[in-house]
Amino acid sequence: MPDHDTLLERVRKLLAKAEDPAVTPAEAELYNTKAAQLIARHGIDNAMLAASGQSGDDITVLKLPIANPYSRDKASLLTSIAYPLRCRTLLHRVGQGVEGVTVFGFRTDLARVELLFTSLLLQASTQLTRVRPEERVFRESLAAYRRTWLHGFARAVHERLTVAEENAARTYSDVAGGKSAELVVRDRTALVQQAFDREYGDLRSAAPRRLSGSGYREGHRAGTRANLDPAALGRRRSALPVR
C-alpha cells in the first residue's frame, strides 16, 4: 500500500488534471471519481491494519464549531461526509441554528472527516457568495435559494463518498484476522453506532426540514465537481465567511 504522502500526491495530480480547462466534463468527472476512490482506499487500509493488530485505532469524538449564517446547512454537510465514512454526528442546537457538531468514530476516520469537511466547506462557502436564484423565479429569497443549494451540494458529496467507500471495501483483496474488508467495515460501523447509542440513544431525532428554494439542482451539480483532495485540507484550515 502507498504511504500517506504518496497517496496524497497521487490524489493531487488527479485533481489537477480534473481542473485543467482542456479536459472534457466526462474526463474531469473520471479524475474526481478516481480521487474519491483513493481517499476511500486510504480509509480501508487503516481499518484493515487496525483489525489485524498492526496499528491502534480507537473510537473517540471530534467536536467542530459551526458558524452562522446557514449553520444548520453547514452541519448537514458535515453529517453528509461523516456517515459514509462510518461516523455518527450529534448537532448542538441553539434556537434555529447549530453552534457545533460532535462526531463519533474511529480516530483515523475522524481525521478524514475533519479534513474533507474543512476543504468542502471552504469550496461551498466560496461558491455560495456568488450564486443567485434565476430572475424567472418569482420573489424567491436569496437565503432560501442558498439553503437548497447547500442541500444539493451536501447530497452530491454524500453520494460520491458512499459509492467510493462501498467500492473500496468490496474490491479490497486482503483479509485481516480471517475477515474481509466488507466485514471489518461492517463491524466498525456497528461499534461506532453502539458507542453513539450508549451516549445519546435516548435523544429524539430532529424532524425533517422543509426547504422551499430552487437551488438544489445547481448545488448538486457543484457537489459533483467538488474537489476531494485531502492534501488541500492542510493548506486552509478555516472556511471563508458567507455574506
Automatic annotation (TrEMBL):
Q: Which residues form the DUF7168 domain?
A: 75-186
Q: Which Pfam families match?
A: DUF2786, DUF7168
Q: Where are the transmembrane segments?
A: none
Q: Which residues form the DUF2786 domain?
A: 7-45
Q: What is this protein called?
A: DUF2786 domain-containing protein
